[in-house]
Write a structure and sequence with these properties.
This protein is of the alpha+beta class and about 950 residues long. It is built from 16 helices and 54 strands. Strands 1, 2, 3, 4, 5, 6, 7 and 8 form an eight-stranded mixed β-sheet that branches. Strands 17, 18, 19, 21, 22, 23 and 24 form a seven-stranded mixed β-sheet that branches. A five-stranded antiparallel β-sheet has the order 9-44-45-46-47, with no helix packed on it. The model is unreliable at about 1-45, about 190-200, about 260-270 and about 280 (pLDDT under 50).
Length: about 950
């Protein structure tokens, strides 16, 4: 999927996105088990060259045996080969533009990874691999693969300072967290500037990178950390700020988990465990064989360490790496720790699981510690014995497992890898502790292997492949250890042994044998949903690998897939690249023609063939294709729509377009092409207003649809969103860096806005709508007893506001809408459900409040956006579901204004966001079904979609 065009936050780059490994260690040499190299033939065969996408450099070169410099270092020999074959690789100066990241030596085989740089600046995801054999004083190149972007021409001097980039990144993250709700939990931000500052997010600049879109986009990489004030969850956001215009051109969460829901930090910024946590003083001579009972009641041997001072046995395994680094496998007691304390950092005061006797008892069993310690050893053994890999990094790194983590004091049903350790949740009444299934432990530890090989970025297709490989190897280790046949109907399940109360299939996290294909099951979603579908779409790829394992046997399939991961794949690979890597690895291993056919058949059966993205269809009418700017939204009014669009590869600063909602005529370019990012547009059919992000300022601009000069209405010192316009009155929401939010408006001729709440810290307002000179918005305000939420209608003509009557005690309010007779909004009173919200309506005077859709009814929606016309209310909503799949993705639902009828707007597969009401029952929205973000419309609902 071209996730470049479907980023929820702003935009992305081709074939997924994530935080790439941009810093390499020159000259690093790794040694694994020996492999016998063949003598190169006298005459080299012709190269099998697969072209790259959006680059002149091949994505894969195979079937060659070309002489390389035997006396040079592996990295220099690799770069020398690329330089000597410049006509093939189109890399003008390989020694200058490719920095060594490391070399893995497997007997005679050498795999060199090189990081692309553009005039010394790392290229996001730009990595090239050269495979060689060195034996008997001779060296040959056997193949290459990866991403080297040949079209980069961007300059390397930033116009935006680091400080400005950090401020913009923090403001963008605050806006993202604020999103489409206002919560009572946001009240901390209404208790004065001192409290607000305490809850602030912080950003740290990580240096310049070049994002490989078109000729390249120079960007500041900023990591934003903190706590979500609404949920209490830790925040780890990777934000890339255009270094010339100051706009967040790419942002995505660093959260990485076993399942799509939960909290965990990406390993890209995790802090290393302190020396003590690595049990650096452990004495291998004190290694003890103990035992424990797993949660499945099986008694297993445990490798332990005797603490002679305390006379206790510790869950420290010092035997497995005693012959290499002398590092350990250690299992830590984290039952008193919250996920926010351990995600991406090492919590102080953590203790190893211990026991007075070497036979660990019930406490260690029920916590999941026995399972975790035993399973970590099994996974280590698998990679060492089957692939010659010494620990997760291939260099004998310490393996730490934290067991029993909770979430805000309640059970945590998830697990994650954060770059330094595995973290396993406590489980609950339905699920055992997450360490209690070998395939879950194998999954998390394999994330560490992936990170230290191809480092597939954790978003979009590359992220789905990351998840798929973790699932594949976790499942392979588990089925092999348990002796389960690949023909068993439950052989493909992941996490099935965690069930306490249901059968395995009912609570398994995924089934690798679910038959998912690109044509029927691939879901086009934005980065804000499951990081671009990393879990949603993973079984398309893992299913192909699982079929391969069933067809050719576990040992051969595992060798093929591991070789593809460790020697062929690179960070930005998509499904087709993954197919090519597996095929090439199979050939390299000398499989038979029948076995090679099985490899191809496995991918074909799952629809992973060249050009598969072009076969995804829709039932809506396209107004503007490939907008590339999902996070900027779309609006409509007066028979016109408006949206931001970039060029196909997303490299150009965004421009505002407008067109007729009936599809007639060509779209009009509204904004200037001046290097700024023109976003968040709105129209009333007469005027278009939008925000322009520049090097030092953020301006609100306007222009008549009929043409004429562009006017600057206001320069904001904070981030803004929610722009609306009607008869010259411009409405917007301001996001402060401390989380404060205020609805402001500009009348024609105003030099500065008025704020409906006064603009202070005591009151927050958000999520505005405008109709016939009246504003509707959500409001968080203090009372003598507490903070309360309400919806207010403000009459611009009289300056009076009417607070709508409430039916209960709202905890969260969502987007407002307004038409000629009523105000509408989303409301959540019960925070203990699955996220259902009601759709509420009142008169413009605040009276006669009713629910047109109750959050308590059995079929209640889970909406997070709303738009209203005089005839209908449309919400962007998911449905409660037993699985994370197409049916649980954001879809558009339309209700009559009295709630008497509810229908799906479109039956498109994939994500549907940013609805804008046209006249009557028409809706315009941004649709990700095709793998791009397209602006589409329907004039009436599609029905119930079966």
């Amino acid at each position: 999927m071209r996730k470049a065009r479907t980023s929820t936050q702003r935009s992305g780059i081709s074939r997924g996105t994530g935080l790439a490994a941009l810093l390499g260690a020159a000259g690093l040499l790794l040694t694994a088990v020996p492999a016998q190299a063949a003598t190169p033939p006298a005459t080299a065969p012709p190269a099998d060259v697969l072209p790259g996408a959006e680059t002149a450099t091949p994505s894969l070169v195979d079937g060659i045996r070309e002489t390389a410099d035997a006396k040079a270092s592996p990295a220099d020999a690799a770069r020398g080969h690329l330089a000597a074959k410049e006509s093939r690789y189109k890399i003008a100066d390989a020694r200058r533009d490719l920095a060594p990241m490391g070399t893995v030596k497997n007997g005679a085989e050498e795999t060199v990874r090189l990081q692309q740089k553009h005039h010394g600046i790392p290229v996001f995801g730009g990595q090239y691999v050269v495979r060689m054999e060195s034996k008997g004083g001779k060296r040959v190149v056997t193949g290459t693969s990866g991403k080297y972007f040949t079209g980069l021409k961007t300059g390397t001097k930033a116009s935006v300072t680091k400080d400005t980039a950090v401020r913009r990144a923090v403001a963008a993250t605050a806006a993202r967290l604020g999103g489409k709700t206002l919560s009572k939990a946001d009240a901390i931000r209404g208790k004065g500037a001192k409290s607000a500052k305490a809850a602030a997010l912080t950003g740290s600049a990580g240096g310049l990178v070049v994002i490989p879109r078109g000729e390249g986009v120079l960007a500041h990489h900023v990591t934003v950390r903190g706590t979500n004030p609404s949920t209490g969850e830790p925040v780890l956001q990777q934000v890339y700020i255009d270094a010339r215009a100051g706009y967040p051109v790419l942002q995505f969460s660093g959260i990485k988990t076993l399942t799509a829901k939960g909290t965990a930090a990406s390993g890209t910024t995790a802090k290393a465990a302190p020396a003590g946590a690595r049990a650096a003083e452990a004495d291998p001579a004190a290694a003890i064989k103990g035992s424990g009972v797993k949660l499945d009641k099986a008694k297993v041997d445990l490798d332990l360490q005797l603490d002679t001072t305390a006379n206790k046995y510790l869950m420290i395994d010092s035997t497995r790496m005693a012959g290499s680094t002398k590092n350990t496998l250690t299992t830590w007691d984290a039952r008193d720790r919250d996920v926010s304390e351990v995600a991406g950092t090492w919590p102080g005061g953590l203790k190893e699981f211990s026991h007075a006797e070497k036979e660990f008892g019930k406490d260690a069993t029920e916590s999941g510690a026995v399972d975790a310690h035993w399973a970590a050893g099994k996974v280590y053994d698998y990679y060492k014995q089957n692939h010659g890999r010494d620990s997760l990094d291939g260099r004998g790194m310490t393996i730490n497992s934290l067991v029993g983590v909770t979430e805000f004091g309640t059970p945590y049903v998830n697990a994650f890898w954060d770059g330094q350790k595995m973290v396993y949740g406590s489980g609950d009444e339905d699920y055992k502790p997450l360490s209690a299934d070998l395939d879950v432990v194998g999954h998390e530890m394999t994330h560490g292997v992936v990170e230290n090989t191809a480092n597939l970025v954790y978003a979009g297709q590359s992220g789905a492949m990351n998840e798929a490989l973790a699932d594949y190897f976790g499942n392979a280790i588990d089925t092999a250890a348990s002796g389960v046949s690949m023909d068993d109907p439950d052989a493909g399940l992941v996490g099935e042994d965690l069930c306490r109360t249901t059968k395995p299939r009912a609570c398994a996290f995924r089934d690798l044998n679910d038959g998912a294909t690109t044509s029927k099951n691939f879901l086009g979603v934005t980065y804000g949903t499951d990081s671009g579908g990393v879990h949603l779409n993973s079984t398309v790829f893992s299913g192909a690998l699982w079929d391969l394992r069933q067809d050719v046997g576990g040992q051969l399939a595992d060798s093929i897939v591991y070789k593809a991961l460790s020697e062929y794949m690179t960070p930005l690979d998509g499904f087709t690249d993954g197919r090519n890597a597996v095929l090439a690895a199979a050939k390299d291993l000398g499989v038979t023609a029948k076995q090679l056919t099985a490899v191809k058949r496995s991918f074909n059966a799952h629809g992973i063939v060249p050009g598969w993205e072009d076969a995804l269809g829709v039932d809506s009418d396209q107004l503007l294709g490939k907008v590339n700017t999902a996070g900027t939204g779309a609006q409509a009014g007066g028979g016109w729509w408006t949206a931001s669009q970039s060029n196909d590869d997303g490299s150009e600063p965004y421009s505002v377009y407008a067109g007729r909602t009936d599809g007639k005529g060509a779209p009009k370019l509204i904004s200037p092409n001046d290097g700024r990012y023109h976003v968040y547009p709105a129209t009333d059919g007469k005027t278009v207003v939008w925000a322009a992000y520049g090097t030092t300022s953020l301006d609100i601009l306007s222009r008549p649809l009929t043409g004429g000069p562009i006017k600057k209405l206001y320069t904001s010192s904070t981030d803004i969103g929610g722009l609306r316009v009607e008869n010259g009155v411009v409405v917007f929401e301001s996001f402060g860096i401390f989380g404060d939010r205020h609805v402001g408006y500009l009348r024609p001729g105003d030099s500065k806005p008025a704020f409906v709440d006064g603009g202070g810290f005591e009151i927050l307002t958000a999520l505005p709508a405008i109709k016939n000179g009246r504003l509707a918005y959500a409001k968080l305000y203090p009372t003598p007893e507490d903070y309360k939420l309400g919806v207010e209608v403000f009459d611009l003509k009289t300056g009076k506001a009417a607070l709508a009557e409430q039916l209960g005690e709202p905890q969260i309010l969502g987007q407002t809408g307004i038409n000629a007779t009523h105000a509408f909004w989303l409301v959540d009173e019960n925070l203990n459900d699955q996220g259902q919200m009601g759709i509420r309506r009142s008169g413009l005077d605040g009276k006669d409040t009713v629910d047109i859709s109750s959050e308590y009814k059995p079929s209640a929606l889970m909406p997070f956006d709303l738009t209203a016309s005089d005839d209908a209310v449309t919400v962007n909503s998911a449905l409660p579901d037993t699985a994370f799949r197409n049916e649980s993705l954001p879809k558009l639902w339309q209700l009559t204004t009295d709630g008497s009828r509810q229908e799906r707007v479109s039956c498109n597969r994939g994500e549907q966001i940013s609805p804008a009401a046209g006249t009557g029952r028409q809706v315009i929205w941004i649709d990700g079904t095709t793998g791009w973000t397209d602006l589409v419309t329907r004039e009436r609902p599609a029905g119930l979609c079966g």
